[in-house]
Amino acid sequence: MDSKISTPGKTIVFLCTTTLTISMSACKTGEEPVMRPNILWITCEDMSARLGCWGDPLARTPIIDNLAAEGIRFTNAFSVSGVCSPSRAALITGLYPTSFGAQHMRTLSRTASLDMITDPELLAIPVYEAVPPPEARTYAELFRQAGYYTTNNVKTDYQFHNPVTAWDECSNHAHWRNRKDKDQPFFAVFNIMETHESRVWMNADKPLLLDPDDIELPPYYPDSPAIRLDMAIHYSNIMRMDSIAGTIIRQLEEDGLADNTIIFFYSDHGDGLPRMKRWTYDSGLHVPLIVKFPDGSDAGTVNDRLVSFVDFAPTVLSLAGLDIPDYMHGRPFLGEQNTSPREYIFAARDRMDPALDCIRTVRDKQFKYSRNYMPQRPYVQFLPYRDQMTLMQELFRLRDENRLDSIQGLWFRPTKPEEELFDLLADPHEIHNLANDPAHHDIKVRLSGALDGWIEMTGDPLTLPEPELVKKLWPPDGIQPVTADVAFNPSGANLMLVSETNGASIAYQVNRAIGGDHWELYTAPLPLSSVDSIAATAIRIGYRQSPVNIYFN
Fold first, then answer.
1. % of the chain at pLDDT higher than 90
2. Whole-model pTM over 0.85
3. Which of 44, 84, 170, 358 is catalytic?
4. Which of 329-336's residues contact partners 24+ apart within 8 Å by CB, and which partners?
């Protein structure tokens, strides 16, 4: 069933109508305090639901299993992409990546893969930032506006540079323990890297925590000791991740905060293994999601509603009792603003480092339909980062020796069908394409229509070359704009800060310390009493940050 839960915590936040500072005691409006919960996100990398609480007999994950026993286990949660950057762009904004130029992997830098190529088309791939609509804000900034202390430890990877207005802290030392006012509510994110794809080869010398021979291989993998070994390393990394998650939860308990903190646990997409990561198969999109409420609401229950990553931001805003912006594509699945369950989830695959592709996918609870917009391109293309993995090298070797069977060889076909349709209940590994099966024609038409509607709604550029996409993001010539400088407008005893750029947010520092990197979020006119100087900068997401201007009182 779908839960409708609103569980306010015990942390008190005083909201001022005139000014908001780190010290909430400055507010003297006489209004009743607003009760808001703390929220903790524990995020891991590149991991499908290989957990004991999901019925995996090999995974020894007692911390996450206990969290599931005390919380709600969502069995149909999905990323919007099989890779991190587009997925994290959706999480931080509540927007589909295809709607604002965040769909390619990745846009902020040229990877080593690109530096190794000579193809003129690939060398023309630009470096750029995704550009959400001007009204868009990171959810972290929305929480700061409401008086939360926001921390991210440490990964961002949003397809745009992390704006200074987003987090109170964003570093490998970021922690709720660093807030000065211990009564201030917090939103804290901890990103655990132990399960990342790269750890399969980086942790190859660490002890295995299970027997490789006990692993059940998917049908698209041949039975090879090298493949079993890499999968065993991945499982072992998951078990180590479980221990790290336990440390974070214990710190929450040690600080006496467990009784007013909502905990989320999830992965940023599916397993970091070949034919899983980077693809819109369930092995790349389906993620574990657990939500635990401090009062034990619905503890130990299972919820099978479809949940997309674009739903996360509106959901946590709903849980905190904050307004959900109209521009967000997601729909809340918990809290007072909980909506009816969605019928479909949508996902995309686009360029992955140097590998050009364009796939759009829609899924309901039983069927998945995918449309390949570049069917002339093979599934397996040049991708040096992935190819470092021994498992991938083994697949290449067995392919070259003609030792892959008809199922294992599907992924290595030189072209792709234009359409793919899978019955996920009968065929969970997505092997048998039903797109041309007359018995499934009506299902394909229904899902294809839903996909067309989503593409139109998001303004999806599909196969538009990236140099042309950049011109759409930064019209007319593809040159990144600079956010307009902050202007200082004194008004009586207060100082107003203004930037002429539509959608710009402003950050400031009072009596700026040389080299100080913490910026307050500007939300209302600042009192000038006891202030020597105020430094300010403005940023619109996807634009260059303005220079820092200083006002001397």
1. 88
2. yes
3. 84
4. 329/94, 329/95, 329/96, 329/99, 329/458, 330/94, 333/2, 333/74, 333/305, 333/307, 334/3, 334/4, 334/5, 334/291, 335/5, 335/6, 336/4, 336/6
